[in-house]
Amino acid sequence: MIRYFIPLLFAIACLQSSVAIAQTSIYGYVRDASTQERLVGASILIEGSTRGTTTNTFGFFSLPVGNSRAIVLRVSYLGYEPKVMSWQDSVSGAAPVMISLRTTGIQSPEVLIEARRNATPVISTSMGISSIAIQEVHTLPSVGGEVDLVKAVQLQSGVSSGQEWSNGLYVRGGGFDQNLILLDGVTIYNPNHLFGFFSIFNTDAVKNVELMKGGIPAEYGGRLSSVLSFTLNEGNREQMVWKGGISMIASRLSVEGPLSEDKSGSFLLSARRSYFDTFLWALNGFNGGSPDFYIYDLTAKANYSVSPDDRLMVSGYFGKDNLKHSSGPNDMDIFSIDLSWGNQAYAFRWNHLWSPSIFSNLALIYSDYASDQKSNVFNTVSGKEPSVRDVTMKVDGEYYCTERHTFRFGGEYIFHRFRATAGLFQGNDDAVTLNASEVQSYVSHEWSVADRLHVTEGIRCDYFSTARRAEIDPRMNVRLLISDDLSVKASYTRMHQFVH
């Protein structure tokens, strides 16, 4: 019944918004004052009311203010000093507002900290969605000095690792393959190094981690259990910054800085490599026959503001695990094995601001998880390359229609190429290749029905070519604000997963 009820709400909302007159909107970006990095999920609230919004993945926000001539905004973000600023109607129609926040600092060993409670979790309609600050991740216990983002996610409620020291993610009883894992919007099929010992995500390159366990927005789909999204740093636009670290497991080095003298763009380059092969080589010198194993990964991102309304971004990740081993009497390699496996993820994005109320993002994405397996068993050589490869084109839009209505919509086309083999010592002749297409579209609507009642409803449509099957997944979140410190929420989510 709910799949008929939600379209009815859409029709009522569209009818109501169609008769709304043109309104004034505050729009712009929230960024770090020292690095000019765009901040994801920053809160913008109108003082003295429950009206507000948050910045999207690209740090953009748009807040319709109706016929208000002068208002006071409060902008806040975890780890930064809140900023209170006044806004007048006379600035409407100008360039986007750039709001800079400064990080907080403690100067003395003993201080009394007094701050306003962050009202966003109470006011928001989101349920089961949590953000993890990178600063908090660095305070967690680490293995061999290497901090792991996925292990920080395992500490969230409703999440289990499955077994000790494993990087498995089992969210609310779901399977490991039922989690949609995104790195800057690109699907990652295997997020682990060293057979699940630690993850591929470098803490020096990631700026935001978001876990969605329930009430998942309509723009996400294709998995049954959860969505885990990692957003990469954009780089420092003010100055060149070098940073790195050395642990017992690996070394890492990152550099970021401006792309041009006018500071219209920035870049980030981060690399990491393990020492396992060095340790195993030392063991091999004394004992003989030890395997050779090492891992490495490279993360990069660049962005450039072509104009106040246009921004281009390119991001990429490349990482691999490598394992080699050979043994046999009298230096004869009767048994040898050469394995390597890893991920590639590349994305090109174009952000465009069509008006103070309409924001769009176009993305072209390539993702590849593959393994190269070669062996020599009793003078028989075999090799194969099983893989999962995706090519994606995606368009997303946001329309801040009126003070009470916000629409989000988009579409996505994914071309899958699956290549599988039967066993380790079978050759390429045993490989099976399957191509499939997946078409997705969605539309969601945030509706402030009353000052204390807020509804977010959405519809997602998925089509998978191999099964020739289409599914409609309705979504709904409802928030009733009882007081400034208490709200009651409910959500309904329907999900489908075609790839297992």
How would you describe the overall organization of this protein?
Strands 17, 18, 19, 20, 21, 22, 23, 24, 25, 26, 27, 28, 29 and 30 form a 14-stranded antiparallel sheet that branches. 8% of the residues lie in helices and 52% in strands. With 500 residues, it is mainly beta. It starts with a helix and ends in a 7-residue tail after the last strand. The protein has helices at 2-18, 120-123, 134-137, 149-153, 276-286, and strands at 24-32, 43-46, 52-54, 60-66, 70-76, 83-88, 97-101, 129-132, 159-160, 170-171, 179-183, 186-187, 192-193, 198-199, 206-212, 226-232, 241-246, 250-258, 265-274, 292-307, 310-327, 335-355, 358-377, 380-384, 387-399, 405-420, 432-448, 453-464, 469-483, 486-493.
Rg estimate, integer Å: 25 Å
SS element count, helices: 5
Global geometry: globular
Which runs of at least 5 residues are low in confidence (pLDDT < 50)? 18-22
Strands, total number? 30
Mean pLDDT: 83
- Beta-strand percent range: over 45%
* Helix and strand composition category: mainly beta
Largest sheet: 14 strands, antiparallel
Helix content: under 10%
Distance from first to last alpha carbon? 29 Å
